[in-house]
Amino acid sequence: MSEPLLEVKSLSTHFFTEDGIVPSVRNVSFTVNKGEIVAIVGESGCGKSVTSLSILQLVSKPGRIVGGEILFNGMDLTKMTEREIRKIRGNKISMIFQEPLTSLNPVFTVGNQITETIRLHQAVDKEQAKKLAIELLKTVGMPNPKKQYSSFPHQLSGGMRQRVMIAMALSCNPELLIADEPTTALDVTIQVQVLNLLRKAQRKFDTSVILITHDLGVVAEMADRVIVMYGGEIVEQNDVYNLFKEPKHPYTKGLLNSTPKIHQLEDSLESIEGNVPTPENMPAGCKFNTRCPFAMQKCIENNPDLERKGDGSYIRCWLYEDSEQEKAEAVVSL
Amino acid sequence: MNMPVEVKETPEGKTGHLLKIEGLKKHYVLSTNLMGKPVKSLKAVDEVTLTIREGETLGIVGESGCGKSTLGNMITRLIEPTGGKVVFENRDLLSMSEKEMRNVRKDIQMIFQDPFSSLNPRMRVFDIIAEPLRTHGVATGESLKKRVEELLEIVGLNRSQGKRFPHEFSGGQRQRIGIARAIALHPKLVVCDEPVSALDVSIQAQILNLLIKLQKELNLTYIFIGHGIPAVKYISDRIAVMYMGEIVEMASKENLFKATKHPYTQGLIDSVPIPDPLLRRDREELLIKGEVSGESDPGEGCRFYPRCPFGTEMCRIEKPSLREHAPDHFAACHYPLS
Question: CB-based contacts of B67: which residues, under 8 Å, 6+ apart?
Fold first, then answer.
């Protein structure tokens, strides 16, 4: 196993709204190793985006990280001052957002915005920065990079804008790239190009990637390891092959069964009953108990812990509770 | 290259035509000359011809801007076409007066993409569903109440929820309300314009299955417009693929996926990520490169020519027409793939 670049330990981020406290992310722990692509999947409101914003210390009021550590190369990002975190943000850790039109400044040219990032973190002059920027635009497959350097965001298509975002994100050779639904707003033929580009860049620079998505197809195509979130918590974690081969948590299973498959001609879809819970109606006990076909009395009373299993997977479900003896064995084997 | 392929016939009992669209087009004038004559126009939908058989689901797929939603909106005359015919049960909708059209609207209903903006936030759910029944004077008083309650239950909501307002519901539930409204008048044809695109994955399957169930029970015919190819494939019997305002391929779902003829269709299918890591594909060689050109006037030839890996001089000069290359399998390509 390679060494961890990012270690998120018991992260909790709550939003203190007028109507009460909304615990968007609860007790989330995971690691990202060097050169690894970790996908976080889940539906709206599961806490996947807030998790990524927490890593970059970008949670805005009324939200706040209320507990946990985020170790990046051993340094705790949650304890850093704004000045210290700025040296890391955009430099060692950068982010790509879903909607490139809202994350690019409409009144500056594309080139302007890329060179700004470069000059903020690297000691280069204007001319060198421009050269680097054009080189980056070329890397991300921008046709006619010299000309596009002077375009404004609105003059570009969605796919091209996302390429600009990727160019900006890669401009300082980040060690970690957080991509929050990077292709959700794009058409499929463009999505495949952008995913290709991300993968190429990741291989070239050996960047670690956290890929946040709701699309299990994208997960299967890209990820090494998968984290499934539901109701603000991690419910399952496994490497991509085992997760798709043998999903364990009833939610993961449900998600896979409710995804239409293009490679199978005759398919039947099983849906997960009920609705995605909102923070106001989050059930007690296991957060999935209102929709789970296997829910037992225990699930309504107590929330299971995220447990590590012998095969290296993590699962939060009473169905997979180890017996005391197995637990003892697991401890010994550690 | 144009080899005949063996094809299965479409399912029996689906031969009666419910709707025929002939040469339908919508051109938006971008600029005019001094005399007010258009010199430049955007062909959002151009010369679309297709038929919808009774009881079937015709899927219409394509990427953003291909004209699929405009096509759907023209069928219900929410957008007035520039030309062509929409023949529903042997009557041309486009030559009808507003009054006649209102009668036909009972038979043709629509379900919209965004369940947040397609329901009036100031109306109670009961009134939203009752509105079409009241407008057409179908039911009043106790029978109206009974019908609305019945509709709520048909779409998987409970009677008491009729008292609530749309904002109290999740996206999936709102889409159920939209469906209840659409089926209230026993329509024959329902145009579903991206009805699951805005929903979470686990909810999409619920809505798709609900639509399938309702189709069987109420003998509905669907036009299902979508950009998510897996979802369209799941629900449709036949699929039409649109590119830049035109249909480039149309066939039964089986044939479209097994014996794909148009390079664009193939590229579209190959672009969809498969939810199985064992089937990860080598993405080095993409079939479709580049993107849809922003040109309003794509010139003489095939509109897909600039992105097509097989394009020839012929494709640049001459536009291929939509021809039947195999029984019930249409494609607009000079060099079909199979």
Answer: B26, B44, B45, B46, B48, B242, B244, B245, B246
Q: Cβ contact (<8 Å) for A188 and B254?
A: no
Task: Encode pLDDT of A232-247 as tens digits.
Answer: 999 999 999 999 999 9
- Per the structure, the complete domain to which residue A12 belongs is given by 4-333
Q: Are A272 and A291 in contact (CB under 8 A)?
A: yes
Asked if B170's CB is within 8 angstroms of A278's CB, the reply is yes
Cα angle A312, A314, A317; round to 5: 140
Which of B269, B276, B289 is facing A220, going by the closest CB pair?
B276
Tell me the residue length of chain B: 338
Please give the pLDDT value at position A275. Answer: 85
B273 and A218 within 8 Å at the Cβ level: the answer is yes
| pLDDT for the residue numbered B296 | 53
Helical pair B201-218 and A250-257, crossing angle rounded to 10 deg: 50
Q: What is the CATH number of the domain that holds A217?
A: 3.40.50.300
Nearest Cα of chain A lies from the Cα of B3 at a distance, in angstroms, of: 23
- Which residue of A187, A223, A260 is in closest CB contact with B230? A260
> Per the domain annotation, does B274 fall within a domain?
yes
Burial label, A40 (beta-carbon count in 10 A; 0-12, 13-18, 19+): buried
CA distance A205 to chain B (A): 18
For the segment B34-69, what is each residue's pLDDT rounded down to a tens digit?
Answer: 888 888 888 899 999 999 999 999 999 998 889 999
Cα dihedral sign, B234-B236-B241-B245: negative
For chain A (334 residues), the mean pLDDT of every run of 10, in chain order, is 87 92 94 96 91 93 94 95 92 87 89 92 91 90 89 88 90 92 87 88 90 95 96 96 96 93 77 84 92 93 92 93 61 54
Q: How far is A85 from chain B (nearest CA, A)?
A: 34
ipTM, two decimals: 0.85
Strand B238-243, strand B246-252: pairing: antiparallel
Q: Report the chain A residue with the minimal C-alpha distance to residue B274.
A: A217
pLDDT of residue B8: 40
Q: Count the domains in chain B.
A: 1
Chain A interface disruption, residue of B253, B291, B307, most A CBs within 10 A: B291
Q: What is the mean pLDDT of chain B?
A: 89
Structure confidence by residue, pLDDT tens digits, A57-106:
999 989 999 999 999 999 999 999 999 999 999 889 999 988 777 889 99
The number of folded domains in chain A is 1
CATH number, domain containing residue B220: 3.40.50.300
Q: What is the pLDDT of residue B11?
A: 44
- Taking only the tens place, the pLDDT of each residue in B115-132 is 888 999 999 999 999 999
Could you say which of B203, B254, B289 has the minimum Cβ distance to residue A265?
B254
Residues in B touching A261 (Cβ below 8 Å): 230, 274-276
- Alpha carbon B118 to its chain centroid, in Å, reads 17
pTM of the model: 0.88
Give domain status of residue B118, yes or no: no
